[in-house]
Amino acid sequence: MLSAERIMQRCDALARHSELAGGLTRVFLSPQARAAAELVLGWMREAGMQAKLDAIGNCAARYEGQRPGLPCLMLGSHLDTVRDAGRYDGMLGVITAIECVSRLSSANRRLPFAIEVIGFGDEEGVRFGTTLLGSRAVAGTFDEKSLEARDQDGKAMREALREFGLPPERIPEVARKKGEVLAYAELHIEQGPVLESEGLPVGVVTAINGFSRLRATLRGAAGHAGTVPMNLRRDALAGAAECILAAESIARTDAELVGTVGRIEAKPGAINVIPGEVMFTIDVRAPKDSLREDAIARIVSQVRKISAERRLECTVENLQEFGVTACAPWLMEQMGRAVASRGFRVRRLPSGAGHDGMALGAIADICMLFVRCKGGVSHSPLESITEADAAAGATVLHDFIEHFRLPA
Ligand code: GLV
Ligand code: MN
Ligand code: MN
Question: Average pLDDT, whole number, for the chain?
Answer without folding.
Answer: 97
